[in-house]
Amino acid sequence: MRTQTFERLAIAIGVFLCALPGPGVVCAQGPVADSPAIEQRVDALLSRLTLEQKIDLIGGVDSLYIRAVPEIGFPRLKMSDGPLGVRSWGPDTAYAGGIALAATWDTALAGRMGVAMGHDARARGVHFLLGPGVNLYRAPMCGRNFEYLGEDPFLSARMVVPYIEGVQSQGVIATVKHYALNNQEWDRHNASSDVEERTLREIYLPAFEAAIRQAHAGSVMNSYNLVNGVHATQNGHLNLDILKKEWGFDGILMSDWGATYDGVAAANNGLDLEMPDPNFMNRKVLLPAIQAGKVSVATVDDKVRRIFRTAIRFGFLDRDQADLSIPLNNLPDREVALDQARESIVLLKNDKNLLPLDLKTTHTIAVLGPDAWPAVTGGGGSSTVTPFELIGIMTGMGKFAGTRAKVLYARGLPTADDVFGNTKFVGMKTADGKVDDSKAVKVETFDNPDFKGTATVSYLSNLTLWPNGDGSGTPAKAQSVRYTANYLPEKSGNYVFLAGTDSGNGYKLLVDGKPVLGEVPREGRAPQFVELPLTAGTPVAIQLDYYEANASTPRVSLGIRALDDLISPEALKIAAKADAVVMAVGFDPSLESEGYDRSYRLPFGQDALLEAVSKVNKNVIVALTGGGDVDTHRWLANVPAFLQNWYPGQEGGTALAEILFGERSPEGKLPISFARSWEENPVHDNYYAPAVPAGETPHVKYAEGVWIGYRYYTSTGKEPLYPFGYGLSYTTFDFRNLQVAPKDASVSGKVTVAFDVVNSGKVAGGEVAELYVGDPSAKVKRPSKELKGFEKVHLAPGASQHVTLTLDARAFSYWDTDANRWRVDPGKFVVYVGDSSEHTPLTADITLKP
Hints:
This protein is of the alpha/beta class. It folds into four domains: 2-313, Glycoside hydrolase, family 3, N-terminal domain (TIM Barrel, Alpha-Beta Barrel), CATH 3.20.20.300; 345-413 and 570-664, Rossmann fold, CATH 3.40.50; 417-565, Jelly Rolls, CATH 2.60.120; 731-849, Immunoglobulins (Immunoglobulin-like), CATH 2.60.40. The protein has 20 helices and 37 strands. The strands form nine sheets. A six-stranded mixed β-sheet has the order 1-2-3-4-6-9. Strands 10-26-25-24-11-12 form a six-stranded mixed β-sheet, sandwiched between helices. A six-stranded antiparallel β-sheet has the order 16-15-17-22-19-20, with no helix packed on it. Helix 5 (107-123) runs antiparallel to helix 13.
């Protein structure tokens, strides 16, 4: 508590001491509050611009800049992708993913991360950090879940405020994104997130609201998707009614890159800056619209004012943004990355106290799996950071063990490229009876998207046209292509069929005439796979229909491999001789990324590898890398230890080794719920939109309403696999002496909740005290528990800490759609305190009176 208070105070003092920007004044901190002096300066700059110059200014330039206006002294403003590091301008510190940060439940650490990223931005002359991301974890497949802060709006809001304050304390604008309801990557430009107002306000907007009202973020980024049928960049309800009017946002609302679809609609409905280029909000579109009275000059002026005002408040007109005294590889900030990784790892299972490993009795350790080496720091897309140095799981284990134990390594599985490139189809027989392997795949290319008419025929030796192939041998103007071949299995058993294509293209795979895999031509999913039984010597007919969206060279691949042959014999030999096995499984930037959704299952072969290893070694420790939960049913019962590693940043291997060997006790807590299966997730029936004809908008109905994650499980009595807030430790903690005052309070008053947390175990550790509130007497149906407070504590064995949390009116409120406001119904409320949404041993009733 004391550390958090001091760090937040330091940030606040830094902001306060930043002098009001003016000619000749250097402002190393920021931002300052708006003032009449700033507005006078904005007016003076605006008066010197022509209408054409104003329009030019509200469109980006050169991908990552706001254009300069040298004649008025306005500099070019530089941006960088985030939110896991300042990644656009060369190597940088790779911080843990947003969901990993949320798993720390450490608000002070979020502030430290923000300050560190502010340092990194200033070292590179960056004015805008394009982060943090605060879209909620609605379903596990969303490709950007790893960037976001979990499933709970209160936790997300609490974590994002110090993050933004930290970034902006260094004179760098934080850009909170993606506003709003960007909860899937599949078909993100076209899909509409359809949600009623109460769900919008209670679940999906609170983190954005806190970012604006509490942290005063200088910039907001609109999302690609539509919201209730209207694109976010032209959604007046989101941008004008809520963001700018209700929340009082006076900064810059920018588009995501290529997320503007109508210049006039965007201009009139709140978008201030089109990025990366003015494809819609430009002179060609807006000048005629202004002349016709469809867009006012005042509307354009307001956008330019926001750009000028924000730049002045942050001191950009009065200093060089690049601070060359800050090292590009800033070593003190590596400690922030290491602390994130240490605090975020969640121990989910530890049967018979297998962990921590004892180096006195553990002499040989096998580290296996695709994520063991090289290091996997984060997911894919615009958040990907290239670090100066990084420590992966195999490297971290080896460095920690040193000469005390042998660390053996094997990947255990082939790469996707290897499966694609080493699949042999049955070659065509020539007239003389020989087999021509170069003609194993027949290629029929159609000049339309519907496989109609007469095809141009050619041949290929295999189906490796993506990701590294160039499609040679097929016409460059293909609209649809049918690939046919025969595959002859050498032995009986299950086989993996693996297929993938570029985002935006589609395919359908048929095996012996039956569809088994498919992808429609949208921004799609990672490579897909299916396991099918085949019989030795019995050929199967393969048909792969490929749909090319943009009339370019075909980019699709298909690979087939016997499931048994996927697993390397070396991996099983190493596992059999080891005292313990660390299985590094999960995803990587090629499998979980912006631009497409991932699978709920582990990537191909990993379930089989886990099953095989657990048969030869009983001391298997699973370290799962990824942005959320996965299907565990094939292996979880057979492994004694299971940790969620998230995407841990550049120091993940060091942190995991420290925890596995007991130098630190695990202290991460789940910021999401782990479902027992995808079918038991409350979003299962509503995640993807029903198919619609080309050109129509697919509508994703958020029919589960406010009952997502733990709100659903605690309200229905259904048990998740692992609950929200859950995480094991090497020690034990008790919650005692709950006191609530007053027990009869006014609906507009405050309630204090106090209790003790005691480390009742034998080692030091960290615990998160979680406070939930229930409203059984509400006039509307509400979740049985909602997180409304928490505090992280670190305690020595036998030590205790008195925790005091305060609940205000918002903690007891729900959104009254009819009244369009937050509402508290007088009556009985229940306070719950514990260490997860399912374990709250302290409870108390209170009554709120009108």
